[in-house]
């Protein structure tokens, strides 16, 4: 989980997150479309997730996505750079924080999460990265991407739900899962398939069909509890 605060405004221009996001371009026909498709994400999935393209996100082109709070208000914007050189950051997030990226078919806003049995029956899957969430959306699963940040309203939103902790299948991912397991009331671990560090790696290496089967089998399992 990120230990330092994100800048609240866009470095250089001083723009607020919502304004900068509104100035970004639709993804279709941009280098951002080529980038997401190279990573196995169809344009339709990326568009439905609200991704946009900024050719000059603090000096480099990036795909952008909004982080929203429990009432669906935009609080931050996350940018994933299309390419990086040694010593460059892979991403930049601006805004005060307190939000997540909600990707996949949505049945309700999170402030209405406890209003019906359908909402409670829907798997609540937490991942870290944007492309983890997009990869699970390709496989038909809705999930929340934390972008390595903590949203303080999550414990209340998860109070009557089982949360599946689908963080990376490495030591940092296990640490992140342990942190969330200590803060949420009911959790299960949902690791990526073997020899896949994360869900986007799994999608690109194994394909949609195999990853979808892995998800179905593990979401039905009862032996993946975190002690």
How would you portray this structure in words?
The structure is a single chain. This protein folds into 2 domains: 17-94, DNA primase, catalytic core, N-terminal domain (DNA primase DNAg catalytic core, N-terminal domain, Alpha-Beta Complex); 101-219, Dna Topoisomerase Vi A Subunit, Chain: A, domain 2. The two termini are 20 Å apart. It is an alpha/beta fold and 227 residues long. The protein has a 5-stranded antiparallel sheet, sandwiched between helices. The longest helix is centred in the C-terminal third of the chain and has 13 residues, at 171-183. Helix 5 (130-138) crosses helix 8 (199-206) and helix 8 crosses helix 9 (208-219). The protein has helices at residues 17-23, 31-38, 43-48, 117-121, 130-138, 154-157, 171-183, 199-206, 208-219; strands spanning 25-26, 52-57, 60-68, 74-81, 91-94, 101-103, 124-127, 143-145, 163-165, 187-189.
- Quaternary structure annotation: single chain
- Mean pLDDT, nearest integer? 91
Q: Helices and strands, in N-to-C order?
A: HEHHEEEEEHEHEHEHEHH
Helix content: 25-40%
Side-by-side strand order of the widest sheet: 1-2-3-4-5
Number of strands: 10
Query: Tell me, what's the shape?
Result: globular
User: Radius of gyration, Cα only, in angstroms?
Assistant: 17 Å
Q: Give the termini distance in whole angstroms.
A: 20 Å
Q: What would you call the structural class?
A: alpha/beta
The third-level CATH topology of the largest domain is: Dna Topoisomerase Vi A Subunit, Chain: A, domain 2
Main sheet record: 5 strands, antiparallel
**Any guess at the CATH architecture of the largest domain?**
3-Layer(aba) Sandwich
Low-pLDDT regions: 113-120
H/I helix tally: 9
Quickly count the domains. Answer: 2
Reading off the top of the CATH hierarchy, the class of the largest domain is best stated as: Alpha Beta
Strand content: 15-25%
């Amino acid at each position: 989980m990120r230990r330092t605060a994100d800048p609240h405004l866009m470095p250089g221009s001083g723009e607020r997150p919502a304004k900068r996001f509104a100035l970004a371009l639709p993804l279709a026909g941009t280098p951002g479309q080529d980038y997401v498709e190279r990573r196995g994400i169809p344009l339709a999935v990326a568009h439905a997730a609200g991704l946009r393209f900024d050719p000059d996100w603090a000096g480099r082109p990036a795909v952008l996505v909004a982080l929203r709070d429990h009432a669906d208000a935009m609080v931050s914007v996350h940018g994933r750079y299309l390419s990086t050189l040694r010593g460059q950051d892979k991403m930049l997030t601006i805004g005060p924080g307190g939000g997540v990226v909600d990707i996949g078919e949505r049945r309700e806003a999170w402030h209405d999460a406890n209003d019906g049995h359908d909402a409670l029956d829907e798997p609540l899957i937490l991942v870290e990265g944007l492309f983890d969430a997009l990869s699970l959306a390709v496989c038909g699963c809705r999930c929340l991407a934390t972008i390595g940040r903590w949203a303080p309203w999550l414990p209340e939103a998860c109070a009557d739900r089982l949360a599946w902790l689908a963080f990376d299948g490495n030591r940092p991912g296990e640490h992140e899962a342990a942190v969330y397991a200590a803060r949420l009331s009911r959790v299960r671990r949902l690791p990526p398939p073997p020899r896949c560090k994360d869900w986007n790696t799994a999608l690109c290496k194994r394909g949609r069909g195999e990853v979808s089967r892995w998800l179905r089998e593990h979401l039905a399992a009862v032996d993946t509890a975190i002690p």
